[in-house]
Amino acid sequence: MAELGDLYQQVIIDHAKHPRNLRAIADPTRSAVGDNPLCGDRITVYLRLEGNVIADVSFEGSGCAISRASGSLMTSAVRGKTTAEAEELFRAFHAMLTGTAGEAATPAPLGKLAAFAGVRQFPARVKCANLSWHTLRAALTLSAESVSTE
Ligand code: ZN
To answer: What is the value of pTM for the model shown?
Structure first.
């Protein structure tokens, strides 16, 4: 576990220990299940849409600290956003984790989500951090009722 010390920045520790929005929504507009078999993370994302706006979003699941912190920070980040804005965040977050965006371009719009930047150095953990976002996207697009990082 020693190598993970670098990952656990304060904001990630906080959200892993005290996840925000960790609950079900009784009457979600949409929901999706995500699975990361490599680590054993499973997550369900619930959405309540009002028009194009994400009026409420929550998650349930079991998994490692990174996946839990990601679910907490993802739901906090996209609540009140439009679906297009959520898609923008997904792209920026994914680019940061995979290193496909310019270094300078990523941190600004991501806010607290930038705490996950260090995860890029640990490819196996990238899937833990991405899982909630892929699941959100599945719920938004209804392209799949369940997603897997494999
Ligand atoms: Zn994990």
So the answer is: 0.86
